Every structure is written in structure tokens, then in C-alpha cells.
Amino acid sequence: MTLIVLISLYKTTSFETISGESYTLKSEKLTLVNYFAEWCKPCLEEIPELNEIAKNENLRVFGVSYDRLSDEEINALVINYNIKFPLLKTSSLASLPLSLPTVLPTTYLLGPNGDIMHVIKGKITQEDIHNLLEEMD
């Protein structure tokens, strides 16, 4: 019983983006959480793809810096790499029920209740996400 309560609390815990917006894992939409690093070439290559994926009205996209950077450093990444989707503040990462990935980039697909539905290791494309969403229908 305690575990169920803890899991429920975890999913309703809010996290904050670098722009100051607050979100919870529960949503009417599916959620992609992408772990990346500036030193990871495939991570940087997929940013334009993630920018396009983030335009999908049925999907939320969040980025997480693997390197646990300061707010100022994360803001610099947004500018330097033209990132159009929200990046989470490092201080919010403890609110996520996601393990730190061992491979970069890694993208988690979460269901509306905040449950992990898929883990994608390696660079993703719009087509990959489109196919994954079609498989789920």
C-alpha cells in the first residue's frame, strides 16, 4: 500500500523547466523525455528532429541535460543549439522516476499517467516516433 501511494505521489510531483514553467508527469498527452549532452554528437544531431516532434499536438517533449548543468548553462544550450522544446532545470530531476541513462541520447516515452511505455536508446527521428506511435494505436 505504501508503494502505491509513493508511486502516485511521484507521478503528481511537479518539475520545472528552465523557463520557469511547472509540469507534472500526468497529462492528457504522451510525454517524451530526452536525455542529452553537449559533448554527444548524436544528441546534437537529433535536436532538429526533436524540435519537429515537439510540434505534435498530442505529445509533450522535454529535454534533460545529462551533465546536470546550472540554469545559465542550460539557457546557453537553448540559444546555441536552437532548442525549441522545454529543458528541465537540474533541480527538478529528482522529481522524475527515470533512471539516469547509460547510453546517450536516451529518450523515454511516458503514457498519460506518467508510466514508462518505451525507452529508446540512440538517436531518434520524427519517423521513429511516428512509427512508434502508430504501433501503439
Short structural summary:
The protein is of the alpha+beta class and 137 residues long. Helix content is 33%, strand content 23%.
What this model shows, in words?
With 137 residues, this protein is an alpha+beta fold. 33% of the residues lie in helices and 23% in strands. It has 4 helices and 6 strands. A 4-stranded mixed β-sheet has the order 4-3-5-6, covered by helices on one side. A two-stranded antiparallel ribbon has the order 1-2. Strand 5 and strand 6 form a beta hairpin. The N terminus is likely disordered.
Give helix and strand order, one letter per element, not per position: HEEEHEHEEH
Largest sheet, spatial ordering of strands = 4-3-5-6
Biggest sheet record: 4 strands, mixed
Silhouette:
globular
- Please give the count of helices: 4
Number of DSSP E strands: 6
Uncertain segments of ≥5 residues (pLDDT<50)?
Answer: 1-11
Distance between the termini: 32 Å
Helix content: 25-40%
Give me the Rg, rounded. 14 Å
* Beta-strand proportion: 15-25%
Mean pLDDT across all amino acids: 89
Q: Which structural class is indicated by helix and strand composition?
A: alpha+beta
What is the element layout, followed by pairings?
Elements: H1 2-12, E1 14-16, E2 22-24, E3 30-36, H2 41-53, E4 59-65, H3 71-80, E5 106-110, E6 116-121, H4 126-136
Parallel strand pairs: 3-4
Antiparallel strand pairs: 1-2, 3-5, 5-6
